[in-house]
Amino acid sequence: MKVSTKGRYALRIMIDLALNDNGKFISLKEIAKRNGISVKYSEQIISMLNKAGYLETARGNNGGYKLNRKPEEYSVGDILRASEGDLAPITCLEEDGQCSKKGDCITFSFWEGLDRAINDYVDSKSLADVIKG
Amino acid sequence: MKVSTKGRYALRIMIDLALNDNGKFISLKEIAKRNGISVKYSEQIISMLNKAGYLETARGNNGGYKLNRKPEEYSVGDILRASEGDLAPITCLEEDGQCSKKGDCITFSFWEGLDRAINDYVDSKSLADVIKG
DNA sequence: GCAATTCCTAGTAAAATGGTAGTATAATAA
DNA sequence: TTATTATACTACCATTTTACTAGGAATTGC
Questions:
Q1: Does some domain include residue B43?
Q2: Is residue A101 part of a domain?
Q3: CA nearest to B1, candidates A130, A111, A52
Q4: CA atoms of A103 and A106, how far apart (whole Å)
Q5: What's the pTM value of the predicted model, to 2 decimals?
Q6: pLDDT class of A101 with cuts at 50, 70, 90
Q7: Could you list the residue range(s) of the whole structural domain that residue A25 is in?
Q8: Interatomic CA distance for residues B75 and A30, integer angstroms
Q9: Is the CB of A101 under 7 A from strand C?
Q10: For the segment B5-14, what is each residue's pLDDT rounded down to a tens digit?
Q11: How many domains does chain B have?
């Protein structure tokens, strides 16, 4: 039941982008350095956030990344799902992997409730909330 | 963020013990068979529940396991923590592994909140609740 | 053209997961 | 007392996942 480094670093990267936002693009090199993550690993993580449509990017010299929206408009749930994948605590609950025994599974609704508790929490917090602390 | 088979099977084993309770000891062989788990793997899992003090056991012929208390008196949280270990979503939050940067970690209280959401939910549900569905 | 940057894909060591296997110990029934 | 049935304990192992590293192609600004 652990969140992997991908999810944890993704959140840190998003926070870094929010805190250092000056309108210009911020290079991964800076972000990675500030957060003590290797540039190469950061690349993979930020790529997932980018593919999810959460960033604006520019290649080439003076390129980099910046946030697409205001920090209030990102839920941490979205950030974690983009980087970690589905947050469902058991595979039966994942979006595409529906369990065939779902109907007569005695534990199903318990796990469904846990899934809801987790997602409700992470969706109730915005990036701005995390920064405010 | 997945619950492992240990946690899932532990819950199933506890439910099986509750549903088939007739005052006598129930052998692992039966439990394992009913739940489609190997006897040997079940052994490891039930051993954790036993060490946590949740069962009464008897060795030898006609031996086996039975619940120690009423199904209402077990929280699923206890069962999962006994089988899965700490449910903390990040290691910094584990009971003994306290993070030194805790104070100035911008994400700490967010994860703390997630930890609370998870534990509050699983502790709010008893074994009896799961069985009732 | 060259330096700085993102984008994409492959590889890899270490750890965790999900088991199997063997043996010792205990209780009971014959 | 011996065979049988069970738990208790410990070691082992294959597969998968995690947490990276590495290399190179494409793009842009100067």
A1: yes
A2: no
A3: A111
A4: 8
A5: 0.96
A6: confident
A7: 5-86+126-132
A8: 47
A9: no
A10: 999 999 999 9
A11: 1
